[in-house]
Amino acid sequence: MTTIPSTEFKDLSLVRQGKVRDIFDTKDSLLMVTTDRLSAFDVVLPDIIPDKGKVLNQISVFWFKLMEDIVKNHIITTNVDEYPEEFKKHKAALNKRSMLVKKAQPLEVECIVRGYISGSGWNSYQKEGHVCGIPLAKGLRESEKLDTPLFTPSSKAEIGDHDVNISFEETIHILGKKNAEKVRDLSLEIYNKGAQIALEKGIIIADTKFEFGMLDDEIILIDEVLTPDSSRFWPLNDYEPGRGQKSFDKQSVRDWLTDSGWDKKHPGPKLPHEIIENTANTYKEIYTRLTGEHV
Question: Does 164 share its domain with 207?
Answer without folding.
Answer: yes
